[in-house]
Structures are given as C-alpha cells and as structure tokens.
Amino acid sequence: MNRLLVVDFETTGSHPRQGDSIIQIGAVAIDDGQVTDSLSTLVNPGQPIPPFITQLTGITDEMVADAPTLEEVFPRLLRLLDGRAFVAHNASFDLQFLQEALLSQGYYAFDGYVLDTVELSRLILPTQNSYRLGELASDLEIAHDHPHQADSDAMATAELFLHLMNILKSLPLVTIQRLQMLVSSFRSDIGSLLRFIEMEKLVSIPEMDAEPGKNDGEEMWDVYRQLALRKREEKLTASLKPQRRAETPMSPFSEMLEGIIGERGSLPVRVAGYQRREAQEAMMNAVFDAMQDGVHLLVEAGTGTGKSLGYLIPGIIWAKQNQQPLVVSTNTIQLQEQLFHKEILTLQQTLPFDFRASTLKGRGNYLCLRKFEQALEEPVEGSSQEMRMVKGQMLVWLTQTRTGDVEELSMPPAGQLFWQQVKSDTGSCLNRACPWFSRCYYFQAKERARDAEVLIVNHALLISDLQAESRILPPYEVAIIDEAHHLEDAATQHLGKQFTTTQLLFLFDRASVEPDGALTRYVAEWESWLGSPQSSLQEQLAALVPLSARMREKAQYWTQLLYAWASDRAEETTDAGRETVRYRAESFTGKHERIRKSTRKLIESMTAFAEGMEKLLEGVPVEEKPPFAVSSLRTDLSGLLGDWQKVVELLHFFLLEQDPQYVYWMEVESRTARKQVHLSAALLDVSESLAEPLFGQKRSLILTSATLTVKNSFSYVMNRFGLDKLPENRVRTLALPSPFAYDQQGLLLIPSDFPAPGKDSDQAYFEAVVQGCIDVVQATKGRTMILLTSHSMLRMVYQAMKERFAESGESYTLLGHGIDSNNRSKLVGLFQTIERSVLLGTSSFWEGVDIPGEALSSLVIVRLPFTPPNHPVYQGRADFLKAEGKNAFMSLALPQAVIMFKQGVGRLIRHQLDRGVVIVFDTRIVESRYGRSFLQSLPPYQVESGPWPELRERIEPFLGMTTLPDS
After folding, report:
1. What per-residue confidence (pLDDT) applies to 206?
2. How is residue 893 annotated by DSSP?
3. Which residues contact 199 (CB under 8 A, 6 or more apart)?
4. In what order do the strands lie in the sheet with 677-683?
5. Per the annotation, where are the binding residues?
6. Do β-strands 662-669 and 578-583 pair in parallel, antiparallel, or remain unpaired?
7. C-alpha to C-alpha distance for 56 and 782, rounded to whole angstroms
8. If pLDDT is split at 50, 70 and 90, which confidence band does 31 have?
9. b/e sequence 157-191, b meaning 16+ C-beta within 10 Å
10. What region does 777 belong to: left with phi over 0, alpha with psi -120 to 50, or beta?
11. Is 594 exposed, middle or buried (0-12, 13-18, 19+ CB in 10 A)?
C-alpha cells in the first residue's frame, strides 16, 4: 500500500464491452506518500467521438487523429502499474476499461489492490455535501483546472487520495480497528488499506510510549468504551462564550445604540464596510420599544435594511437590561447556524458587554452514544454495504464533531433510516444511569441552552415547544421570529402528522426475531448473565416467530393495496419528485373497503406481536440488577414498544377514524422504483394553535421578514397567525423600505405576446419559454437564474436549452437543481465561479439565495408561483374557507403567491451597486384583474411591457450602462 497508481480514463461512453474506447489516459504514481511519476496522453480510439463526450471533455476527433493507439500507449501504463495498487475516483468505471483493454491485447487481468476514492471519501469525509471530484477538489482547495480531462482528473484524484491518507493516519487506533470490522464487503480494498495503517500504528506505539503525553488519542481523543470521541475543550464547548469583561452599569438604550452604530461606534470601527442605515435604526428603536412596552411587532424590512443586526442589537440589549433570555427563531437549521456563527460572533466582539449564546435543535437531531455503541455490536454479517458505510461514517464523524448534530452529516437514505435507530429520544433514555450521560450530546446542548442569554432555535423547535407545553426550551418571555412568513408552514408541518410505509418496515426490523435481531440478542444476553438457558424466555421468543411472519405478510399486502390506490390517482404537486393524492375516510368504500379491512388486520397483528414482546420483557427475573448490556437492550425494547403504540395510533388516525380538523393525503415516489407511500395530515387552521399559547402567553414577539405584506397590508399574515384575535393595542406593524434605488438599478420586463400558461397552450407556452430563456442568456452572457414552479418543468426547460445550445455550438454551463446536484449551496457556488453559467431552480431557490454583484444580472420568472390547485393542503384550506363564505383564491392562493413572488424578485438586487433585469414570462401579471397585486407589492422597478422581440433588446443596453442615470 506504499506504491499506488492513480488512474483516470476519458472514454467514448460507459460500456467497453459494447465497443466504447479510451480517448485519454491520465496516471499519477505515488510512492511512500510522494508523487514520483505521471503519464498523460490522448489516445486514438479508432472511432468517432460522440458530440456529448466532446462537450463534456473538450476532446475532439481532430485532437485524437494523430494520437497513439491504445496498443502503443499501454506498455508504458503497465510499467507504471506493475506492483502498484490501482486508485481511481469511481474505480469500477476505470477498472472495467482497464480489464477489457488488457484482455483484448492478450494480457492477464489486473489482480492487484483496487482503491476507490469515492468510497474512501464517503467513509472519511462524512460531512461532505458531495463526493463528485470537482466539488471535493473545490472544498479541499485541490487544484483542478480542467475537469473531465484525464490528466487533470488523475492529478486531482492523487491529491485527494493523499489528503484522505493523512486523515486516516491521524485517526485513533481504536477507530481504525472498528472500521476494519465494517468494510470487509466494500467494493474496493479499503480493508487492506486499514490493516496497513493499523500495523503502522501498532509498530509506532512503543516509540509513542517513550514520550509521556504523546499516546495515540491522548491529545485529541476521548477514548471510552472502545469508541473515540473528539475531546471537549470545556463544559460549554460549542456555545459562544466570550472572555469575561468587568460588568458596567447599563446605559439608556439611545445612548448605547449611539455608542454601537454612531460615527465612532464599535460597529463601524470593527466591522469593515458597515454603514449607518436609517431604516435599520428605525427597526432597532421599534424592536426595543415593543419589548419595553410588552407588545408584539411585525416588521417588513426590505432587502439591504440589515435585518439581522436590526433585531439582534435591541433584542440583546433589552434582554441584558432586564436579565431575561432572548430566543431567536429562524426558518431553517442552515440559517440558524449562519446567525450563530456570523452575526452573533460579530456582536460578541462589538457590544460593550458580555453575553452567552448557544443553539438548540430538536432532540432527534442529536446522536445517542449508547444506542450507537449498541448498534455497532450488531453482527456485521447480513447487513447491507450501505448500512456498514453509514456506521463507518459515523465512527469517523465522532472523532470530528463537537455537537453530535445530524445536520453535520451527509448520509444516504439508508443512513437516514439508521439515524432513527440511534438518535436521542425520551422514550429510551437512561438519563443519569447511562454510562454515556456525561458525554451525551443532547444533554450538553440543553445545558448550554439553560446557560445562554441568547438562544438560537428554528421554527420547528419553537412549534414543538408549544406542543410539549414549554418543556423543551428554557422559560422565555421575549422572542424574535425571523423569516416569519414561514411560521404558518412550520406550524402546519410540525402540528401535523406524518408516516411512511418504510417507517413501518423499519419498526419491524427493530423488533426482528432473526438470530441477530434485538429480541434474540436480548434473550441471549439474559442467558449469558444467568449462566443457563431460560426455557420460559425461549418459549416466549419462539411464540413471536410466527406472529412476526404473519404481521410482515399483512404489512406487505397492506402496502401493495395502498400504493396501487395512491399511484392510480396521484399527480405531481411537490418539488420532491413525489406525486400526491388527497383522500377522505369515504375514499375507501366499495371495492376499496379492503384497504380499511387490511389496516384493521394489520393493527390486530401488530397488537398481538406487541403483547408478546411485553410478556418477553416482563418474563425476566428482576431480583438483581442486570449488567449494562442487558439493561441497555431492555431500555431500547421498552422504547420500541412506545414507538410501536404510536405507529398503531397513527394507522388508526390515518385510515380508520379521521379528524375533521385535518386534511389528509398520500404521496408516492414518481421517479424511483421504490413502492413507498407517505401518509400526511395537516391542520386546516393553525392560527388557533399559535394565537393563545404563543402570542397570548408571551410578553413580546418580534416577527420579521422581507415579505410580510401584500399590497402594503399586513392583514394576510395577521389573519394566518391568529394575531387578529388579540386586542389591537397588543400588536404593532412597521414596513421599512429597502435603501436600494430600484428605479435606477432594476428593470422589470413583461412580454405581452407570450401564450398564457394553461392546459390549452402548454406546448406553445413551453416553446416560448425556452426561446425566451435562451434570448436572456445570450443577452447577458450567462449570469442568469431561472426560477420555475415545478421540477418537471425545470427538467424540460433544462433539457431543451441544453440541446439547442449544443446545436448552435454555444458554450454555456447549465446548472439544474436536482439534475447537476441536489445541494443548493453547491450549485450557487458553482454559478458564482463558472463564467457563462445559468442556474435553474424551483421553490428553494425563490428565497435564501444571495448572489450579489455581476454574477447574477438577470432573473427569469417562468410562472407566477401559485400553489398547485391540486395540492392537498391548499385544497383542504380552500374548502374550509369556502365553507366560511370566503373567496379561497383572493384570501389564500393570491397572498401566498404574492409573498413568494416578492421573495423571488428579491434574489436579484442584493447590493447598492447591483444592477439587473427581471423577466416575467407569465402574461397574467398584466392581463388578469389580480395581476396588479403582484406589481403593487414590489419595490419601484422600472416596468416595461410589450412584444418580446422589442423587450429583449432592452436587456443588454440596460446592463451595459457603466453609470447610473441622474435621479
């Protein structure tokens, strides 16, 4: 393992046995951790290179016309490969071409070690968002100037491999040994590599022992119960706890504010580029006054206001003056992290007093070390390679994480299921009786939250705390809800209920009666402790075997019925690639009554099995305290029984006795072969759930967003949040305009000659959209983001644009969400760095994307972002409103669409020097009666409407202006 050859082939296709050939070879030799030799050559494949390969690699037929043949090149490659391990990124691809070439030329097949840097990266870099070579190279700052060219790919892969080796060699011995138990079935020879590193470490231990304090793990690792954890620096690690300064009496707010943001204040002095803004200062005063007066405040703060500091500075000052904790809630965990690590850190360095800050997430976000230890004890044989990979990733992650927060991990679907087995939860927690208690990630997070003066949470946890009657968060009286336009959606999600057929099967797997299952291991542990077979336990276990088989049979039949019913009726309404269908109790009558019957039979079967499990747990002696292995398994099985009861209740709720306060629907996967069914239910009206426990009970809540008004009125969000049920003097509103000169910086173009989007003209509309997008991209030389309202439309537009650019020979890089990557941050990063690029996104790109400067110069909105009329939650709420005599379109669909439209348009002008063009390809915005609601809710852009051939000529001159016109 000290001698390796890193190889990359560019080829005419993916199937060497069907005639595809190598067109370029890149190879890099590594000896004892150093690059010692390399090979780079084009290869004449003896056949034309397909156009898409030329587009991908830049290699043309002309370039390989005079290149050597494979027969001429191979001897040198084989001399380099002799005695070396074969390394490649996605090694199975390159290896199949190597083996086919060897056999076709009369050589023996390669039988040496094979290492795959994709597999190795997944194992060793568990927090990485993507394992594509280009994105790995970018993140790890590895030079990779020519992606999809073999010489550049091979050198980047070699650098990646050396980086991975350095990490592996730095891991503690116990982690290396644990990993070896998991990788035996991996496609590449990672097990041999780990054995090589283990031997190196074992050989070096005597030398390390000679120097006190240098033992493996002593400096960085906390090795406990055969697991290595990253050492905690102190009890409050990962909360922002500044050096203590001498406390000074608090001045009045106006004086303190001047000392912070004034000409000689701490912010201008310490934060480069900080400018005092009138709107931000107005927000600061309004937030402080609302907290002081004990009222709620809604603030719409336009882009560029400096919203985060606008609420944090007054909020922290008020909390400090009144010795009360301040809770700040954001919409997503990503925003939570950004706020914590950026704005809070800045304020800790600039405010004239100390304050402690921390984050807290839902309990299920944290790893339970006891459960993970137990999962590692499960037999490796029989578990899937993907599950072994997940366990390996988490072993490595434990040496890196300080928080144990699942958000740090990048896991495959199998990992997300495994997480349900090892996450922290109340039902299976041993608390202080757990040997891992002092190291427990969740209790450490809770401790930090209790000590914090500023606690950053997310909307999901805020809502969960309401459900749990305030037992999750420390007591608080004031809170700031950022991105407040998402509060209703968060409440809908977290006050609703969800269940999947996959969860059911996973629950059954946790109660497996197989030889390596939890119940069998439980009995074995008891017998091992007591020193003799226990006939009563064996009888109870044996009685569960036929019950388990019948239960699984009924579950399979039930799943098939449910999937068949849902897939026959479902339509695409979500961005997740799922199709949905709303249902009611009466949906399952007549010939579909068998769904309800099979649900009852499944519940009966599950109940019988649960009773058998209870008997097994009760049938053990309790006179003596059992060892930890026994009590740990018993705790997990007791927790499993609790989960079992919840699932039975959910089956009843979803299919037998439905609650009229909820809307019900099913989702099925439309683009995979997995026959899963997702069942969901949402409250028709969440305002009651927010009005009293949240707004009625708290002293002061500040709700802020860039988009809270529709046609300059807060009435829509007031109604949806239940704020209109409070006395008028308990709620204030404030709308702050953006400081940007939109009338000079932005141009809004609306073609009047486009077909209207609708079923009668779908093809004509689609053709017009594709050509319109191409026109915009050509006018702006890329630098364009295209916002769409469905994944199916995105895929169609993406493919059509790609084909037309290929036909015309124009070179643009298209970046499609869900096509080139599922990671939004990665796509945005690529868009900002790749010239002549185009970014296509759906709902998650309409907000939270910040691309200042010339990288984004034009924004195309293909359709107005109305919720699909067949979306179950919209349908249910529309019916609810109609029953109250209200117009569902005007009071629900239109305001929702306007707010999202405002968010989308807000992606363009992000800085006072930005300049850009918004193009809306939906003529309803000028032709319909409701269209003015969209235009009246926007900042004062220059707006032009007319024939597209005329409008598109306005784009380039507008963007090409070097100075802004006089106001």
Report:
1. 57
2. I
3. none
4. 497-500, 677-683, 662-669, 578-583, 571-572
5. 301-308
6. antiparallel
7. 18
8. very high
9. bbbbbbbbbebbeebbbbbbebbbebbeebebbbb
10. alpha
11. middle
Rounded Cα gap, residues 554 and 212, in angstroms: 62
Determine the Cα–Cα distance for residues 700 and 914; give it in Å rounded to an integer.
36
Look at the block and give the residue holding tokens 């308990």: 730
Tokens representing residue 443 in the block:
């209790």
CA-to-CA distance for 197 and 210, rounded, in angstroms? Answer: 21
Whether 176 and 392 have beta carbons less than 8 Å apart is answered as no
523/539 Cα distance (integer angstroms): 11
pLDDT greater than 70 at residue 819: yes
Say how far apart CA 373 and CA 435 lie, in whole Å: 11
Q: What is the largest CA-CA distance in the chain?
A: 93
**DSSP secondary structure string for all residues of 687-750:** HHHHIIIIIITSSEEEEEES---BTTB-HHHHHHHTGGGS-GGGEEEEEE--SS-HHHHEEEEE
Tens digits of per-residue pLDDT, 908-941? Answer: 998 888 899 999 999 999 999 999 999 999 999 9
> Which position has the token pair 């969800």?
498
Two tokens, residue 961: 């202006």
Mean pLDDT over each residue of the chain, to the nearest integer: 89
Which tokens in the block code for residue 883? Answer: 């029953």
Query: Which residue type sits at 561?
Result: L
Who contacts 206 (Cβ-Cβ below 8 Å, separation ≥6)? Answer: none
Q: Tell me how far apart the alpha carbons of residues 666 and 830 are, in angstroms, rounded to a whole number.
A: 36
201-226 tens-digit pLDDT: 888 765 544 443 345 545 678 999 99
671 pLDDT more than 80: no
**What whole-number percentage of the chain has pLDDT above 70?**
94
Report the percentage of the chain scoring pLDDT > 90. 61
Q: Return phi, psi of residue 774, to 5°.
A: -65, -40
CA-CA distance, 98 to 121, in Å (whole number)? 22
376: number of Cβ within 10 Å: 17
Q: Residues 707, 717: contact at Cβ < 8 Å?
A: no
Yes or no: say if 262 and 255 are a contact pair by the CB < 8 Å rule.
no
**pLDDT per position as a tens digit, 300-358:** 998 889 999 999 999 999 999 999 999 999 998 778 888 998 999 999 989 999 999 99
Ordered domains of the chain (ranges, CATH): 3-170 (3.30.420.10), 498-683 (no CATH), 742-960 (3.40.50.300)
Residue numbers belonging to the annotated binding site for ATP: 301-308
Single-letter amino acid code for the residue at 740: F
